[in-house]
Write a structure and sequence with these properties.
iron, alpha+beta, metal ion binding, four-stranded antiparallel beta sheet, Phytanoyl-CoA dioxygenase domain-containing protein 1, dioxygenase activity, 16 strands, single chain, eight-stranded antiparallel beta sheet, Jelly Rolls
């Protein structure tokens, strides 16, 4: 497999993201949607802690420190939309109650679909993706943090602007996201928005903060990054940050792959439409000598380490 064309690679390097249409076949998309529906309908609420997903920017969000979230790196777990619950707790249980059917209440399913779900493993750990990773300069690409993002109709939460290497930090930064549209993603249902070129040093693309486990391992927090802020070989000069003129909201057809540089600033808005916006995503980091995965990152490797992409 040839990987990216020179033109595709140049676009990725210039903008910090790349949309590749028709990367998945229709049968692959249908298989992933079928598996997603099965997962959403078949998990049990009986022992579920009803963990709600937030991005961690909200200091009142306890879930980013709970065991269900922190131990999900090698499991398949379900995280709910905050807007799928009552605003006031139940007077008997003391907890908010779901006001949506469970299959319409889940924000995301994660974080090891690439090892535990055969359909998702098939589109993740394959030679085609390994070829793309080699095009991007990876020597020993490792896959981690795979998840289905549901963006449910009318309640799918916004994701504020962030850079992925803040959450999956290597020294130096190396993360790249693989984001597959399983349904059409448009400005109407909360698609991705990128600040073009914001991964570059001269555009303020430095990793200045990191999302880590607290020292007692009982919570998470954002801290200042004191390590390398840009990938190896990147221009360290910082001239200015991204502007509103740099923002591009993309229109992505189902089956497309979006490659996302770990330092590019991006976001998605709340889905206020009547259409869901399902996507599957995982990240790749460099596992070769000279890149260290930080021991304080919220997600820690399972026994045996993260999955090799070119195995």
């Amino acid at each position: 497999m040839a990987g990216l064309t020179p033109e595709q690679l140049a676009t990725f390097q210039e903008n910090g993201f790349l949309v590749i249409p028709d990367y998945l076949s229709l049968s692959e998309v249908e298989s992933l949607l079928k598996e997603t529906d099965t997962l959403l309908n078949n998990f049990s609420l009986d022992s579920h802690p009803l963990t709600q997903f937030t991005t961690g920017d909200d200091d009142t969000a306890d879930h980013v420190g709970d065991e269900y979230f922190l131990s999900s790196g090698d499991k398949v777990r379900f995280f709910f939309e905050p807007d799928a619950f009552t605003t006031e707790p139940d007077p008997i249980t003391g907890r908010a109650a779901l006001i949506k059917p469970k299959h319409l209440a889940v924000n995301k399913i994660g974080h090891s679909l690439h090892t535990l779900s055969p359909p998702f493993k098939a589109v993740s750990l394959n030679e085609r993706n390994a070829s793309v990773a080699r095009s991007l300069g990876f020597t020993d690409p490792r896959v981690l943090q795979s998840m289905i993002i549901c963006k449910q109709p009318s309640i799918g939460g916004a994701v504020p602007s962030h850079r992925d290497s803040e959450f999956l930090y290597t020294d130096p930064p190396s993360a790249v996201g693989w984001w597959y549209a399983l349904q059409d993603a448009t400005p109407g249902n909360g698609t991705l928005g990128f600040w073009k070129g914001s991964h570059k040093g001269r555009k303020g693309g430095h990793i200045t903060r990191r999302f880590v486990r607290k020292a007692d391992d009982k919570g998470t927090e954002f801290i200042e990054n004191t390590g390398p802020a840009l990938p190896k070989g990147a221009d360290e000069e910082k001239v200015s940050g991204p502007t509103d003129e740099d923002l591009e909201v993309v229109d992505v057809k189902a089956g497309s792959l979006v490659l996302i540089h770990g330092n590019v600033l991006h976001k998605s808005e709340k889905n206020t439409s009547s259409r869901s916006r399902f996507a599957y995503t995982f990240h790749v980091i460099e596992g070769a000598e000279g890149w260290d995965y930080d021991k304080r990152n919220w997600l820690q490797p399972p026994d045996g380490g993260f999955s090799r992409l070119n195995q």
